[in-house]
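So, can you check what follows?
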Amino acid sequence: MVIYKWLNSLGRYLELMGRTFQRPERMRMFFKEYLKEMAQLGVNSIGIVLLISFFIGAVICIQMKLNIQSPWMPRWTTGYVTREIMLLEFSSSIMCLILAGKVGSNIASEIGTMRVTQQIDALDIMGVNSACYLILPKVLGLITIMPFLVIFSSATGILGAYGTAYIGHVLSPEDLTSGLQHAFNPWFVWMSIIKSLFFAFIISSVPSYFGYTVEGGSVNVGKASTDAVVSSSVLILCSDVFLTQLLS
C-alpha cells in the first residue's frame, strides 16, 4: 500500500507538471506574476541567507583552526577547507534545505489556501489553466534567483571567515587569504550553481503539488505544508548525492 501510494503521488505530480509547463495564455500577466514571485520567493530570502552564511563561515573557520590546524600542516589549511565547504556543500545544499523550510511552506500554504477556499476551482471554471497560472511563475522565478543566492551565500561566508581573522584573531588574514586562493577550481562554483538549479525546482514544484492537491480545511493545509517541507528536504538530500557524484 505504501508503494502504491508513492506511485500514485508520483503520477499525479508528473501530471501536474505536464499541465504546469505549457505556454501561458496571457504573457503580460505571466511576466507580471513571474517578477512578483521572483521578489517574494528569492529577494525576500536574501536577508536570512546572508545572515546564516556569515555566521556559518565564521564558525567553520574557527572550528577548522582549533581542530585541524597543527604544526605539521600548512598555515593556509584553515582557509582552504573553509572555502571548499562553503562552495561544495553549504552554499548550495545546506542553504537550499533552509530555503525549503521558508519558501516551501509559504508556497504550500498559499496554494493550499486557494484550493480549500475554491479559488482554484473558480479559475478552472473560467477556462484558465490554474496549474500554469499559479505554479509556473513560482518555479521559474525561484530557478532564476537561486544562482544569485548561491553566490551571495559563498561571498558572505568568506566575509564571515575574514571577520574571525580580523576581529577574533583566530588566524592571520594573510594565511586565510593564502588558503582561499590555494588550488582554486572554478568548476566548483559552477557545480554549486548547477546543483542549486535542481534544488530550486524541487523547492518550488513539490510544495506546489502538495498545496494544489490538498483536500479538506485549514488543518489539512497545515499538514500539507509540513509534508511539503519534509518531502522537499528528503528529495534535496537524495538528489545531492546523485548530482555530486555526476558533476564531480
Summary: Residues 81 and 174 are 15 Å apart (CA to CA).
